[in-house]
Amino acid sequence: MLNMVVCIKQVPMVSELPWDPKTGTLQRDLAEGMMNPGCRSALDAAIRIREAEGGQITALTMGPPMAEEVLREAIALGADRGILLSDRRMAGADTAVTSTILAEAIQKTCPGFDLVLCGFATSDSETAQVGPQLAEALDIPGVAYVDEIEVNGRAVRMQRLSDNFLETLEMDLPGLITVTTGVHAPRYVPLGGLEAAFSEARIVTLDAAALGLDPERIGARGSATRILNVYSPTAEKKNIVLTGTPTKIVAQLFERFDDRIGGAISRDLKSDKKKS
Amino acid sequence: MDFNPCMKHKLVRKAVRMFAEAELGPIAHDIDRDARFPWEVVEKMQPLQFFGLQVPKAFGGAQMDSISYAITVEEVSRVSAAIGLLLTVHNSVGAYPIVRFGTEEQKRRFLPAMAEGERIGAFCLTEANAGSDAGGVETVAIRDGKDYVINGTKIFVTNGGVCGTALIFAVTDPQNPQRSSGVFIVEKDTPGFTVGEIEDLCGMRANPVSSLFLEDCRVSEANLLGKPGDGIRIGLVTLDTGRLGVAAQALGLAQAAFEDAVRYSKERQQFKKPISSFQTIQNYLADMATEIDAARLLLYRACALKDAGRPFSAEAAMAKLHCSATASRVTNLAVQIHGGYGYSKEYDVERYFRDAKVTEIYEGTSEVQRMVIARAVLAQRT
After folding, report:
1. CATH number of the domain that residue B253 is part of
2. Structural domains in chain A?
3. Is B49 in Cβ contact with A189 (below 8 Å)?
4. A190 — contact with chain B (CB < 8 Å)?
5. Is there a smaller number of Cβ atoms within 10 Å at the N or the C end of chain A?
6. Which residues form the domain of B350?
7. What sign has the CA pseudo-torsion A20, A23, A24, A27?
8. d(CA A78, CA A94)
9. Mutate which of A188, A199, A205 to test chain B, going by most B C-beta atoms within 10 A?
10. Which residue has the higher pLDDT, B220 or A262?
11. Confidence at residue A229, expressed as pLDDT on a 0 to 100 scale
């Protein structure tokens, strides 16, 4: 029986969101929210663990009141309860402050927790910092970018792909794991679960005062970092025609794109050349 | 009056859209081309309770409200109207009559398998000489002890080729058809029940629409919904709900065609400009947007009336009439905006165009909807 916490963030649904072509930024006021895909995978991992080991899943999010939607969705997918941390004074928090607030909330609302699961990163800011920082704030071990999780008693065995190597790691509980996307197909929301998530489930909302947070140390005011600029990366397409004999073309290809088409092959070609 | 969708309805839309785009999106074109019923997707829909949308929880359903139901059908139809059709027929005229008129015993016997999607529902009213005229049914169910023996032929049965549980309209006294119509729950493994050939239709091709033959098909009196003579009343109430589903389906089609048309008009260049910069195209898009919006409001209003337990028959007819007309007009304009490409099977708008027409025909033709609306108007006003 594991006491699990899944941290979930509501992110803008980029596919539905227009860009402001003049500033290159997302028109967030037009944004529909959705559950961050990494968080969806983390919740999915928690449900798998509960299927194997039993336990309870608390879905936790920090955000504006509309972020309640991802908690309802999490409950429809299988979470047992939802906790929303919402307070205007928390707005604009950087990753460090976010982790501190989440840690405080976990300690207050989930005493004796065994495992915290987060997405590996969020699709709106992509920092991948909150998970590891949260492990620090909770003073527990943390492993990031995990694909597979297996719980055996008080130990967790994890697999992750790291620089083209598969790593197997083990960690004692309590601990924190950030989960990647793409290994398991996302679970779809069962429609009856969704109905019940609204008619039966209750969401607990906590503000800064309920968490006993110092208003000076939260939100944009308490954050040490500032976002200076957000812009859309521009990708350019260019046609390049290589000319000459086939041997010359291949040589040019490796000269120009060595790093992209695999250094090993290129090195082999070069050493072959030296030999001959 | 609040025109904003609530959090639940927003989430229903997102959840169904996510499923439909991922699972039906990649095959929607091919199942139409091949007239193939996608069992592999149906199997994924079953555990998500797509087949028990408005069946009570106690019988394994999702017990959704009617707006959630409409949004579900709309979003599935936005990707594949043929599968939207499967859902609306199964849920609103297959399972719903049993929810509404069934005895506790009938609900226990039939609903769980239908809500699981293990038995797909069909509604069989139309015959060679009956359709809009429900009183013209010639299929007979003759009493024999504690059974009824059914004989007759049903045509254009949506889901016919895959149905597990069919609701059959039949008359128990051929001398007095108007007063003796009944609805019988017939399961496909009943001896004497056979499925005819799959129809070769203009649109909705992934749905196996077929004839059904009943030859000395013996069912227990426990399979009769309501009492003998209740048939027409059950049929009319059922069709009111069915119309919400078909309206939602038509709306989903219109929405899909509209989105494709907007996207294409921004991409397609003529005279060195995107065609969306031309006023004619803008007028088309403006009309499409306006009609779709009006259709959606009519539909959700009818759904809200139903959920509030208020009369909604005329409002459902208005929604169905306007949503289906909108689907036909909007898909037509979407083909027009796509030009020659719109007429090609390579583009989805060609499929939407073919699929849309029948929404003006089934579940009561547009002419019948006007009859229903006019009747209400004349009854309400002096």
Report:
1. 1.20.140.10
2. 2-222 (3.40.50.620), 246-275 (no CATH)
3. no
4. yes
5. C
6. 232-380
7. negative
8. 29
9. A188
10. B220
11. 78
